[in-house]
Hints:
By secondary structure, the protein is α/β, with parallel strands linked by helices. Helix content is 43%, strand content 22%. It has helices at residues 15-27, 38-47, 64-73, 89-98, 110-128, 159-170, 178-186, 192-206; strands at residues 7-11, 31-35, 52-56, 80-85, 102-106, 133-136, 139-142, 147-150, 153-154, 175-177, 216-219, 223-226. The strands form 3 sheets. Strands 2-1-3-4-5 form a 5-stranded parallel sheet, with helices on both faces. It is globular. The mean pLDDT is 89.
Amino acid sequence: MTAPAIKILVVDDEAPIRRLLRVGLTTEGYVVREAADAAAAVASLAEEKPDVIILDLGLPDVQGHDLLTGWRASGLELPVIILSSRTDETGIVQALEAGADDYVTKPFGVAELAARIRVALRHRLQQQGERPIFQAGDLSVDLVKRIVKMGGRDVALSPKEYDILRLMVQHAGKVLTHQHILRQVWGGSADVQYLRVYVRQLRQKIELSPDQPQYILTETGVGYRLRAAD
């Protein structure tokens, strides 16, 4: 007996984009349903809940941000990945703050999107039963014992550095906005530049080349993303 195929709802008013996603994601083994606007998306959700939603922000009847906010307010917990134009950093930040799990900018590759879908699904499973030890490459973080290692070597972190890294580990593979990190670590009272200083210090301790990081990745104008677990 094989596991049921993962169902994806694509919400986008551009028919060529929907066609591209339908063909590409079907090839990847997903079952794809389509909605050209918010009304169709709501109707589709009522009929059958998907495993993942891919949501364009520029819908003709309701703004994608408002649709997402309403979904999260109603208790919808499944992963939502945003499709956005490359220059729409403000819109991306707003969507992430509203509860989006990730974003992909247009134009995009289907392979990249499929990888983001896998990470989003894995992240949701981890939230339901968080693993005590995180491992990505040479980086190891024991969330129970609060021990951080690089290549088997203990790494000494300050309390705030550890708090930032722990937050990133808990959401590994997912982009976290600057404001989200500031709220969670400082209660929202610190400046973004303050966060950048701590991230730079963290990179100096866990990256082989802090100027070319492989673990703590910068999402320009948006925030940071910790490399997903192995």
